[in-house]
Amino acid sequence: MQWHDPRLWLEEALRADGRDPAEVQTLAGVRVSSRAAQAVGDLALYDEAYRILDRLVQSGRAELRERLASREHSAGGNTGAPVRGSISLSRAPSRVRR
Length: 98
Description:
This protein is mostly helical. The protein is built from 5 helices and no strands. It has one domain. Helix 1 (6-16) packs parallel to helix 3. 20% of the residues are buried.
C-alpha cells in the first residue's frame, strides 16, 4: 500500500495556522525503516494536520473547509482509502504507540 507524504499536509496546516512549516521536521521526527512503524508515524502526522485544520474551520476559517474535506479523501494515496482525522493513537494498542 502507498500513501501521500503526510508531511506535505502538515506543512499546509501549519501555514494556515500562521506557524512555521519547518516545524514539521520536529513533529515528524526520524523516518524509520520498518514499514509498519512508518505507517503509524504517518497516521500521527495526518491526525495532527487534521486537528489543526479542523480547529481552524471550527473557529470560522470557512475557506479551509473544502480543503479539509478533499484531504480526508485523498490522504489514502494510490489506494483511494480515506484517512479520517478521527484516527487517534490514544486508541492504538500500547505496543504500537511505543
